Structure formats: C-alpha cells, structure tokens
Amino acid sequence: QLQLVESGGGSVQPGGSLRLTCTATGSTLDVYDIGWFRQAPGKDREGIACISRAGGSIKYAESVKGRFTISRDNAKNTAFLQMDSLKPEDTAVYYCVADKATLVDNGVGFSKWEWDYWGRGTQVTISS
Question: How far is CA 50 from CA 23, 38, 77, 88, 122, in A?
Fold first, then answer.
C-alpha cells in the first residue's frame, strides 16, 4: 500500500521560497502519476501541479504558473514542489497525491476525486 508523507512546509515572508518534498513508501513511485493540491481555510481543495510517471507531462494551475515547479526523482521515490515568489494567498495546507491511472495525460490531474492516494499535508504560511 502506497503511503505519502509531505515535508518542507513552514512560514516565510512574501517573496520567499519553500521546497516541499513528498516521500513515498510501500511501493515504487514510477508507476504513479503525482500531483500537489492545497487547501486554504474556508476554501475547497485546489489542484495546483501534476506530473506524469516518467515526468514527460507537467501541468500547472494558473494561480501558480511561473512561480512553482513540480519535479520527481523516481530512483529516490520522491517528488518535489519548488515554490518561489510566494504570496499571502499561497497560505494553505499542501497535499501530495498519487494515482496509477494516467490522470495527467488524460487531462484530469486537477480533479481531487481522481486521486487515490493522499498524504496528510504540510502547512505553508506566507506572512510578513
């Protein structure tokens, strides 16, 4: 059974950077698409970035495009979300997700209902 654990969250000032890591255990990540979602207080869970199993397809939500970078290292069973130029509106709990279906290439990578595996989340707070 695949398990995902996020790390790297914290509190930074606007304009700062954070790098989130998603560490997988229980299975090898190279057969899963990977995504990142976030949920701000009082808001719905939002898909912000996803990457296909071999890394050939990557998609970003408009809200993070040009500022966030998703990547993966299948050999180390990890995935990453580099977040730059952070804004107060990026404050949220960030979740790593995975699924064996080809969600990214099928264009449903931002649908929270499609992903089978979820981490417990890591808090990111952007505040001056």
Answer: 15, 12, 16, 22, 17
